[in-house]
Amino acid sequence: MEFFLLVIIALCAGVIGSVVGLGGGVILVPATLFIGNNLGYIPNITPQSVVGLSVIMMIFIGLSSTLSYMKSKTVDYKSGLIFFIGSIPGTMVGAWINKGLDLPSFNLYFGIWLIILSFILLVRDKLKPISWFVDNGIKREFIEPDGTKQIYGYPIWFAILLTFVVGLTSGLFGIGGGSLLVPAMLLLFQFPPHVAVATSMFMVFLTSLANSASHIYLGNVPWIYTLPVIIGAYIGAKIGAALNKKMKSETLVIALRIILLLLGIRSILDGLF
């Protein structure tokens, strides 16, 4: 039964993560902890093992999404590699912090983080883009299908600092980091939306490789559960990438921020009581 539930959870995580560029861990981690600890389908699941499982899943969500976005030529590889440089040490620090958390502490901090992410998703469309980062950094351009040229950019030092924080949260909580990176790419660096999501998923793929190496070294990956998660995530990411090309993601973002808020409150309550 637990394998079937993990396939369904990973499928949903793949779809949602790929459409909005989050990576999917924000769905897998709380859902797996719930079926493991509250429903008893995965005995002795720990914060460390569920984060290890999530980072393995995100490799395949990132890979599947990136392959799909490559066909539409919306991945900014140069920016993705620059962002990756900052995220590597961040994932290592996050994984090291994670090993010292018990379940109540993890639930409390993870719940607080989910509520912060929900707030970021709530306000990101109400904030105005800031041109300073584009004006004072390297500039990139993207040609829309209709021939319109979009200029965006960022200071490399700030991008590396930002992605260190993204990597740290990824290593600590097993989430993709796109929840921070995508709004920053849109508001600060003025990326075109589809380029932001596609490049975020490319960075999720690269970061997850480094992140998984840390968690494998620490013995955090429950290998018996990886196969159903990989299958569900890979298929879900393909579906999500296809939906991203055909739909506005705002409806899904509205639903996601409500879900994150509810999951965050529940996780905090589990951590406190």
TrEMBL record:
It is a multi-pass membrane protein. It is found in: Cell membrane; Membrane. The chain crosses the membrane at residues 6-29, 50-69, 81-97, 106-123, 156-189, 196-217, 223-244, 251-269. The keyword 4Fe-4S does not apply. It holds the Pfam family TauE. GO terms for cellular component: plasma membrane. The keyword Signal does not apply. Keywords: Cell membrane, Membrane, Transmembrane, Transmembrane helix. Belongs to the 4-toluene sulfonate uptake permease (TSUP) (TC 2.A.102) family. This is Probable membrane transporter protein.
